[in-house]
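Exercise 7.
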Amino acid sequence: MNGALGNVLPDTAQVLSIGDTNGDGYPDLVAKYNNNLWFYVGDPAAKPGVPAVKLGRTVALPRNWKHFGNRTLFGTGGWSLANRPLVASGDDADGNTVPDPWATTGDGKLLFYSGARDASGNPTNGASTVVGSSGWNAITAIS
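Solution. The predicted structure, written as tokens, is:
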């Protein structure tokens, strides 16, 4: 699997509608698989609509799923199902105009990741903050 989202994602992939992470006015996606977090920019020419979502063990893709660009490595290592059982997209919780993801850990913590952009406006994997210290490993969905 390389490049665009149009390739088949593994069954274990978790796909998130993260919102407009790079600030271009179009919705983007983040996918968690193979121990990494991948960013897919929405293709402005195609004007993507409703992004893909993880439904149980099935990835439900919208009819225009091909309208997302090539993937960019967003977070390396530590994103396995054992380390981060659940990753959820969120709105801009910290007020910096970038959507913020949340994740649970294998030992039960809830982490908040402050979304950020580099000097060129590209999204970066922000630092995490523990906001829940235990019991979150039993949670299967956050909305």
